[in-house]
Specification:
By secondary structure, the chain is of the alpha/beta class. Helix content is about 45%, strand content about 20%. It has a single domain, classed as HUPs (Rossmann fold).
């Protein structure tokens, strides 16, 4: 039976390893959706308020150009991931992309997306040190702790 798989995708090398793992291990009949949550910093590009710090206003266009480059990089990475999945035999109709602006938090937004009928969330484990992970946590740790109705697979 084909599964509906959600890959939490952040365009990092770890995320590409997750895609490679899915391409190697899962059935080519499965549906795979790459899901990326953008930080909500992009909303600053649309702000034109006198309350904004003078320095930020002077640098706003540079900041917004970086946001556009980040979006372009994510799209290019998703296309690379799609090519990898196609090369492994997955059907194009079974590969999807979804990009979303952060609403409640990256982990919570991924979990909310997973409620839309997914069988499995596949996520990479970010390379935080043990101390940093203890204090600030990681998206993968938050998803593992909070997932209730969907299985989670963490790829190192």
């Amino acid at each position: 039976m084909a599964q509906k798989i959600l890959i939490a995708f952040d365009s990092s090398e770890n995320a590409m390893r997750v895609v490679e793992y899915v391409a190697r291990v899962f059935s080519t009949e499965d549906t795979v959706n790459l899901f990326h949550v953008f930080s909500d910093t992009a909303v600053l590009c649309d702000m034109h308020s006198p309350e904004l710090a003078e320095y930020f206003v002077a640098q706003q266009s540079s900041f917004c150009a970086l946001e556009e480059k980040k979006k372009k990089h994510v799209n290019e990475s998703m296309e690379k991931a799609k090519t990898l999945l196609l090369g492994a035999g997955f059907q194009e109709k079974n590969i999807g992309f979804k990009l979303e602006i952060k609403k409640r938090g990256i982990a919570r937004d991924i979990l909310r997306e997973a409620e839309d009928g997914y069988d499995l969330i596949v996520i990479g484990r970010r390379g935080l040190s043990a101390i940093a992970e203890f204090f600030i946590g990681s998206v993968s740790q938050k998803i593992l702790n909070a997932a209730k109705q969907v299985a989670v697979l963490v790829v190192s």
